[in-house]
Amino acid sequence: MQKPAILAAKKLGVESVVVDANPNALCAPMADRFEPIDLKDREALVKLARSLGGDLSGVFTAGTDFSSSVSYVAEKLGLSAHPFQSALNASDKVRMRTCFKKKNVPSPHFKEVSRSEIDSFCKESSVGGGHFPLVVKPCDNMGGRGCRLVRTKDELFSALSLAVKNSRTARAICEDFMEGDEYSIDAIVFDGTLTITGFADRHVYFPPYFIEMGHSLPSKVSEKIKNELIATFALGIKALGLNRGVAKADIKYTKNGPMIGEIAARLSGGYMSGWTFPYASGIDLTCEAMKIALNLPPDEIISKRESIPWQPHESVLGAESPFKIYEIKTNLFSAERAWISIPGKIKSIEGLDLARTAYGVRDVLPRAKEGDEVDFPRNNVEKCGNIIAVALSREEAKKGAEEAVSRVVLRLCPKNAQTERFLHFQKNADEDDFPPCAFDISEEEPCPFPETVLSSHEIAPFIPEQLGSKVDWNHRSLKKSAELFDSLAKNHGELSGKKLWTALIRGGLQGALYVSDSEE
User: Fold this and answer.
1) CB-hemisphere CA count at 13 Å for 361?
2) Cα separations (Å) of 432 from 151, 162, 193, 241, 428?
């Protein structure tokens, strides 16, 4: 996620001093200078900044929740950034919700829970008047780590324990669940103006977790609803005190109107700010945001933005606009889609080059590689890779991205305990309906394969017509999965037809290949 920032620095003619606790960070070799400093160690960052003297022109991050570290250093050295306290408001979910509540910005009811309070809280469970579902998440993490939906009181203890484990300060927040369509919004906040620089539909799946399997930009939402969401976003930015830099929202449109999931003082991750918006708009958003950090005007944004009306939802009716509001129109459509895996260890990866040939594909971005342990994702960091496609229409971009995803095959090592556990429907006690099956087909559906499947038998012709069009989480139909199995496992030995069918339904193509490879 820092690659666009390092490239933006080069584009603007400034040297990049890049810091990360991990000396082997992926983009470290791209930096003009790299220092292994933990992003949480603010004093060490200030020390480094001061050692640069008058040569330091700005501090910047994109796609991470360390905007407070950026603002701390900038404030100490008199550089351009959001105020430190405002960045803290946008980094800690309890502080954030408290700011929203004080300013009557629509967001869920919430309670903070520390590690020592979990037992007593679970006995009381009074958030939402004791009603479910609830959402539990760490107060200070990103990427969906430790975040899950709690549908019954029985799930509350394990959810809080997971959230606290993923919190840097051992605190969780428990809040009402917001039902409604979800959107991502990026914006630049500068000199009393708010410019929307990306408005996307989020595609979130797999409860009780919240896995974003992609986003589509621009959103297909109506202008009325879009303007209402933007108005609530603007009020949230003002409530947090963000005034110089960037802001990113995860926001839903519920039966009661817009409600804010969270606002961060940074550009979005998930390939939106550095990839899909620039592709759709022709604007290097990271470069424009970095200009503000360098105390320069974001001149390309200013020259291309268009004013939009203040149209708040009735839930905030009467509120005055805290900014002059603009947006950047896009000429093209971008679609980002992820691919994922069932549990196991990657033996080989097929189809990456073929994925690059799908219509409109700009990027194939694998995260997992051969030899990696993989799992069905419980957060957004555990996805295995991403595709980005661009086209003249929303449908073409979507089709291209999903076709590319369907061409990528992660083949797993045979005889793996985690894969076996998954394929035998063994689940954690508090995850009785997770992970889901690749194909939504009743267990009563009769096995269409012969009792013994030999290498001379292709399985694709046996797929029932009424089931063949069903699609798994990697956008592969049942029929296509069977055809790929036939091409990738031509020399398998004798296989139990029922075992192969069950593995195909449970784990998709990966499950079928695993059974074949394990029988060799």
Assistant:
1) 23
2) 12, 17, 48, 42, 7
Residue 307's beta-bridge partner residues? Answer: 326
Phi, psi of 352 (to 5 degrees): -65, -45
The pLDDT, as a whole number, for residue 65 is 79
Tell me the C-alpha to C-alpha distance, in Å, between residue 84 and each of 127, 188, 249, 422.
30, 17, 19, 46
The stretches in the chain having pLDDT less than 70 are 125-130, 520
Cα separation, 247 vs 237, in Å, equals 7
Number of neighbours of residue 435 by Cβ within 10 angstroms? 22
Q: Are 289 and 241 in contact (CB under 8 A)?
A: no
Q: End-to-end alpha-carbon separation of the chain, Å?
A: 41
Name the phi and psi angles at 197, rounded to 5: -120, 50
Q: What's the confidence (pLDDT) of residue 127?
A: 58
Residue of 358, 260, 239, 240 lying closest to 313 (CA atoms): 260
User: Could you tell me which of 179, 219, 175 has the C-alpha nearest to residue 199?
Assistant: 219
The residue among 251, 259, 229, 254 whose CA lies nearest residue 325 is 229
What was the pLDDT predicted at 129? 56
| Nearest Cα residue to 16 out of 29, 25, 6, 2 | 6
**Both structure tokens of 304:** 């291309």
Which amino acid would we find at residue 229? L
